[in-house]
Amino acid sequence: MSTIFGIPAPAFYGQLLIGLINGSFYALLSLGLAVIFGLLRVINFAHGAQYMLGAFAAYLLLGYAGIGYWPSLILAPLIVGVTAVVIERTMLSRLYNLDPLYGLLLTFGLALILEGVFRYWFGAAGQPYSPPSQLTGAVNLGFMFMPIYRGWVVVASLIICLSTWLLIEKTRLGAYLRAATENATLVQAFGVNVPRLLTLTYGLGAALAAVAGVLAAPIYQVSPLMGSNLIIIVFAVVVVGGMGSILGAIVTGYMLGVLEGLTKVFYPEASSIVIFVIMAIVLLIRPAGLFGREE
Amino acid sequence: MTVETQYLSAQPKLRATTTVLGAIAIAALLVAPFVVYPIFLMSVLCFALFACAFNLLIGYVGLLSFGHATFFGGAAYFTAHAVKVWGWEPLSGILLGAAGAAALGFVVGFLAIRRQGIYFAMITLALGQMFAFICLQVPFTHGEDGIQGVPRGHLLGFIDLNEPLAMYYVTLAIFLFGFFAIWRIVNSPFGNILKAIRENERRAVSLGYRVDRYKLGAFVMSAALAGLAGGTKAIVFQFATLTDVQWQMSGEVILMTLLGGIGTLVGPAIGAGLVLALQNYLAASDFPVTVLIGIIFVVCVLLFRRGIAGEVMEFFKTRFNRST
């Protein structure tokens, strides 16, 4: 049997794939956080809860309305996006001229409420959600067997990340968004409805989290606590990458996911803390983050 | 977070009032165990000290630490281990816990003060989570079980802490010591520089202060005092578990401080009492506690940012100003 650095090849590739998948979720979530932070200057602590909400939306749509995976991939983010818009209009928008820490505390409170309510209804145990029939089974890549659904997750998240990047860098809406990030007052003076832009951005960020949630539902189980542990790791990813650049958030997400997967191969005991250790090292060497600017 | 500074000590009339109120509060705490269940009171005192220590950072330096459970829970593990496995006397065990928390605070603070504001909060949260993972894996914390059955022992060799009243008064003494320490720090020249950093960090730098050292100093002090609270809690409840090091605990201490009043001396203690009383009350019903905690967070942030003590002080301040 072939080995890589003394590790059996299938185990190595298997962990690499798991790393890529985790990295996909880190990238999707830190991308949403960066988009929201860029414009609203709010760290969205509810991001993990919105990810969980996306997964539960898909689960409930299937259970109560018989709506399958593919429509859910559109519907769940839409539902979560709308709730996020309501949250932004009724609560977050009151805090913009205060210290940004209040935004963090408010969204933290919202995350606790959402998590608590779903835990009350569904218990802490996970609910199974099966992948769509088109994506079941595995394919032989020659060096390993890859479950088709996992390959799909990597591809889908790459597509979503890239199209979000294109939306922000190459379209007129994205140009408004970037301009408002630089100087909101000036953009408002040019006649752009900045408050609406803020609302839209928060909705978009939350919808991204919900997409990630739907993608995750068949891989991990749908559970009320799936978001809160993930979001703390994503915070570390964001600190490593720096929130200055969208592309930086995406690249850092995948990179740390893969590094975490590789740690599982070579030194499994450290795999749960490796991202935090990398964060500490980056803070020592380059406090602004790999892609960040000093503010 | 900008919080109005207290001017109490500058005004003689108000100073007399606070002295009287303080004396009444201490008298009430002395007779309290004859009225209220002592174990509950002791947990309130431990969490009140924890919240006051946390408030030293958020209220007086403007740093939001989202990882203070590390110092509280970490100290609980150190104390429990020293007392149970090494057979240390309880007070030295508690002091070891505080010293360990200070050491952890030095490491976490050293890393976290390299970034400001919102990043500071995220870094402390992430490092706190890392510490929780480490606690889950290293052998001396006994993973999911925690350290159980810590003996209370004899304080300084002759005060039997298995007596509930003795334990209560020792806890009260530790709380008062910690509270007094925080009061001294806040009202010292060092504390004034901390407040200057909170109000305008750049100006403090331009005045020649090495801001990072002051921040780190305040962080270590806050961690040590949180550790004092955590170590005491380990002796009172006779165990140390993962619950105390996880991020939910960091969130709880933020809530206590926010509810009581950020940047007020007594506010966090009031907040701690209220949150614990609510949890105690809800423990009998099946209403999920996290939901209630979340709701209080949202309400406090939206409507009630000064907290209870802050609102009361604001009320008296406007009345005081009107009467003079």
From TrEMBL, chain A:
Which top-level group of life is the source organism from? Bacteria
Q: Which GO terms describe its cellular component?
A: plasma membrane
UniProt keyword annotation of Heme present:
no
Which chain regions cross the lipid bilayer?
12-39, 51-67, 73-92, 101-122, 149-168, 200-220, 232-259, 265-285
Which GO terms of the molecular function aspect are on file? Answer: transmembrane transporter activity
Compartments where located: Cell membrane
Membrane topology recorded in Swiss-Prot or TrEMBL = Multi-pass membrane protein
Q: What is its main location?
A: membrane
Name the Gene Ontology biological process terms: amino acid transport
Q: Which UniProt keywords apply?
A: Amino-acid transport, Cell membrane, Membrane, Transmembrane, Transmembrane helix, Transport
Q: Does the keyword Magnesium apply?
A: no
Q: Which family does it belong to?
A: Belongs to the binding-protein-dependent transport system permease family. LivHM subfamily.
- Name of the protein described by the UniProt record: Branched-chain amino acid ABC transporter permease
What organism does the record attribute this protein to? Answer: Microvirga aerophila
What broad taxonomic lineage does this protein's source fall under?
A: Bacteria, Pseudomonadati, Pseudomonadota, Alphaproteobacteria, Hyphomicrobiales
Automatic annotation (TrEMBL), chain B:
Give the stretches traversing the membrane: 20-50, 57-79, 91-111, 118-140, 166-186, 216-241, 253-277, 289-308
This protein's membrane topology, according to the annotation, is: Multi-pass membrane protein
Q: Which InterPro entries match?
A: ABC_transp_permease, LivM-like
Record GO cellular component, one term: plasma membrane
**Cell membrane among keywords:** yes
Where in the cell does this protein reside?
Cell membrane
One family name in Pfam for this protein: BPD_transp_2
What this protein is called in its record is: Branched-chain amino acid ABC transporter permease
Native organism is Microvirga aerophila
